[in-house]
Design a protein that fits this description.
mainly alpha, 11 helices, 293 residues, single chain, 76% helix
Length: 293
């Protein structure tokens, strides 16, 4: 059995895989909670508890708040709030794996927008083919909720904004940016959750433990593991592995929620993953070429 401590690259791959499984398992947990609590309540509490946990992990008190560029933090937090709420609204209507696949179009679009390689048209074509295969045209009883699709695409758009906002200088470290951004996102969603009605029993210990678990699975654990993994992974390896998220989400939906996908939809996930991996590879190659010149 290999000693992972002596193989930092392999250890990083394992940690990143655990992070992705944790993130997509949190989607399955959120879908279970949606049957019992309002979606906005789940979204707001996840960001609140997640920001508090990350504040402790990343020692938020060490921030020099005078250096914080709040414009960047606020835009980042608003994108995070939209991505979080719209994704939970989507999985209430369509299977988890399909929701993640539609949402993944957001970061894929950002990557394709910045790529300038001759293979770009192939990745665009694969992404379009994957989207087409997601729709079960021949099986009326398996039709997808159009509003669920719209919510997932909206979450993907917010994910794209989240990526662009996260690249702006915020005056603090990336970890502190995530923590502050989650708190801003919570401030965006909490008034809506309170206005729509937040059940008092969510704060009962028997229920609150599930929201804490959601915050850990969706935020604290994956962000911490990704931070460790990135120390020993190239951007190419990281981006390629993250492309597996739709498949992991589909498996999570199958295992925890007993969601069944058509063979064409499994094929669609494979096509979208291939497009994302290819895009990541060519984008990295282009970056390496520019750096050499």
């Amino acid at each position: 059995m290999p000693n992972l401590n002596n193989r930092p690259h392999l250890l990083a791959l394992v940690l990143l895989l655990i992070a992705m499984i944790s993130m997509q398992s949190s989607g399955a947990l959120a879908k279970i909670l949606i049957d019992q609590f309002p979606i906005m309540t789940i979204s707001a509490l996840r960001l609140l508890l997640g920001s508090l946990i990350l504040a402790v992990i990343f020692k938020i008190w060490q921030i020099h708040f005078k250096d914080v560029r709040w414009k960047a933090i606020i835009s980042y937090g608003m994108a995070l709030a939209g991505m979080n709420a719209l994704f939970y609204l989507s999985i209430d209507r369509i299977p988890l794996g399909i929701a993640v696949a539609f949402e993944f179009i957001g970061p894929l679009s950002v990557a394709l927008f910045h790529a300038r390689q001759k293979y770009d048209f192939i990745w665009v074509g694969l992404a379009i083919l994957g989207l087409a295969l997601l729709f079960p045209f021949a099986q009326a009883d398996q039709s997808l909720d159009p509003l669920g699709i719209a919510f997932a695409l909206g979450a993907g758009a917010c994910w794209a904004l989240y990526i662009m906002a996260g690249q702006r200088p915020s005056g603090v470290s990336g970890n502190h940016t995530v923590c502050l951004g989650m708190f801003v996102g919570m401030l965006c969603l909490m008034p809506i959750a309170l206005f729509l009605g937040m059940p008092a029993h969510v704060f009962e210990p028997s229920n609150l433990i599930y929201f804490i678990a959601l915050a850990v699975l969706a935020s604290a654990l994956p962000f911490t593991l990704e931070m460790i993994a990135l120390r020993n992974l190239s951007a190419l390896s990281f981006g390629t592995l993250m492309s597996l998220e739709p498949a992991i989400a589909a498996l999570s939906g199958f295992v925890f929620l007993h969601e069944q996908l058509l063979w064409t939809q499994w094929l669609a996930l494979a096509v979208i993953i291939s497009a994302s991996m290819g895009c990541t590879f060519t984008a990295q190659q282009a970056k390496n070429t520019i750096n050499k010149n």
